[in-house]
Amino acid sequence: MARCLALGCTLGTAVEMERNEGRGPVVIKVRGVRVALGRDESMRLTVAAQELAE
Amino acid sequence: MRSLPQSGITVALSGAPNTGKSTVFNALTGLRQHTGNWPGKTVERKTGVYRRNGTLFSLVDLPGSYSLTANSAEEEVAREFLAREHPDVVVAIVDASSLERSLYLVGEILELGLPTVVALNMADVAKAAGLTIDIRRLEAVLGVPVVPLVARRGEGFLELMNAVERVAAEGKAKPPLKRDFVPPTDSLLDSLDAIIPADLELPYPRRWLLVKLLEGDPALERSVKASLPPDVWRHVKQTLARRGEASLTIAGTRYDWAADVYRGAVRGKKKVTSWADSADRLLMHPVLGVAAFISMVFAVYWLMFRLASPLQRLLSDRLVDGSASRVESALSSWPDWSVSLITDGIIGGVGLLLTFLPILAVLFLALAALEDVGYMARAAFVMDRFMHRIGLRGKSFLPLFIGWGCNVPAITGSRIIESRPARLTTILVAPLVPCSARMVVIALFTASFFGGAAALVSWGMVMMNLAVLAVVALLISRFLFKGEQSSFVMELPRYHMPNVRTVLFSTFERLRRFVTLAGTVILVMSIVVWALSTFPGDGVEDSFLAHLGRGLEPVGGLMGLDWRMMVALLTSFVAKEQTIATLGVLLGTSGDSALRAGIVGIMTPAAAVSFIALQMLFVPCVASTAALRQETGSWRWTGFALGYTLAVSFLVAIVVYQGARLLSLGV
Known about the structure:
Mean pLDDT of chain B: 85
Order of helices and strands of chain A: HEEEH
Number of strands of chain A: 3
Low-confidence stretches of chain B: 1-5, 34-43
Structural class of chain A: alpha+beta
Strand content of chain B: 5-15%
Radius of gyration of chain B: 28 Å
Largest interface: A-B, 28 and 39 residues
Helix content of chain B: 55-70%
Shape of chain B: elongated
Strand content of chain A: 25-35%
Largest sheet of chain B: 6 strands, mixed
Structural class of chain B: alpha/beta
Helix content of chain A: 10-25%
Number of strands of chain B: 9
Strand order of the largest sheet of chain A: 1-2-3
Oligomer: heterodimer
Largest sheet of chain A: 3 strands, antiparallel
Shape of chain A: globular
Distance between the termini of chain B: 75 Å
């Protein structure tokens, strides 16, 4: 949790899912940096879907 | 403040992992310290000296950290140095191509109010990725000098050190960057401020300390508790109980600031290079990624045996055998025992061992290149699923993989792991990673017994070794640390072209350590083994060592090993590669071919496989044991590691040999 914060996953931050195999760890992109997250950790992040502006 | 003239200017290098901190440190100090591209390589702070125009700079390379909250043991080292030692200047090294994230740590350093210079490293990468950074603007907002740098090409160091000297000359600490937080965090801070007495004797800026308490930094909570009367601490504790999600607010406030600074100074949108994307599609694929990893390991073994092994034999035949016979004829007038000391004890032991340098060079080059490219974090990612099954997480894979070179950095490298149970488990299984010294012994045995199939047999033995590691890790996490959760959150650094200098430095440094060890500890040990095998006289068969070894023969017999092999095993406690030196002395051979013939003569192929297993799993060497004690902080855990490796190694070796006998294989 503290590590997630330090890596930039703070409230209201846009994250992009880069890799998700359905099981095992996932890769997200946050603040221009790619971060590997364990499955359990990723489950604890709450995100709201949003259309990409591009 | 406390700048001592003779120590010059103390400069702390601070930065997140993968920002090139160690490259900057190496370039400035020339001290060949290990650098690499995986999160948290620098596990201890390292110091070096840089001199220019009569000014002395003492540089301290702090462990990489993303923030100043102590999430792991090594982040605590970095934090405590900055907060307590008050370096004259802090050089905050940031990755220009991921500036927003990097600014978080810069903000925290500014909150400490230390004199700071920001080094904008990888300025070329940022430019190539399509980013334009307005340096003046950045300086104006941050209130500190900002110097662009391309550390890998040695560009910008002069400007950086000019800025450091200027800031040091000003000599005044800046007022700490003060942040305003939204309710209820601000009122919580006020309550803490009211409760904690103003004369609290802790070496941190007051507001910084209060904020860190709200963030829930365990190390700081402990120090505050220790310096407060119990009733006041109870009060503090009650306030902290109301903090709720204050840490979210605080980190959010800092990142909002970082995002503002970023938007103000950077134009352009980052492009991702397409080859890196395709590489990741393969290397991080759940199946193909694991296959790629295993093939890479196999390729390294193949190179070791196909390329380096013949070179080792050549060296051994030409140099070791040649010099031994030359010494023998040159010293023919000397007493027999002294010639024997030189040819059997020194040349036969240490000289032979040194011929294994090509094999080690291949391994060390491969390790250094993989680290430098940025592959390690990918390997940790694909291995996380597997590591999860054995009760560990992907992050543990990083120190364990480094253990392939040497177990000592694997044990100390475990500091990057946040949770204590996961860290302890990693430390305890680290001695089971087949290190390069063991690979040398395995190379000798497999090449002697299995010829063309040597690489395959070695690879198989390594797989067996890793299976044992997995079982032990599983048992430890199941039974010793039941129900403990650990997490896996890790940055994936950008790939970059391997830097020839960095890779060669790292390889050279590891080889140098091997040669130093061979020239000191192993030299002395070889002479001791020679003496014990020569006296009281009447040949090896009647020596002190033979008596000791024969005492162990009942156990050795179960594994098909005679007393010489048992003695070789015992001496490997000094260093694993000692096995070869000891066998060279005991068999009275001074060259590779003679030694190979010698060991083939005293054991069956089944016993050789059993010995390889024994040697791979046997108790950690002295250096690893010392590291175990240091990192676990307990003799009991150290004893546990020694005890279980002893038991497991004998058990597996006996099963291997007896199994082979039952099946009449290789007996």
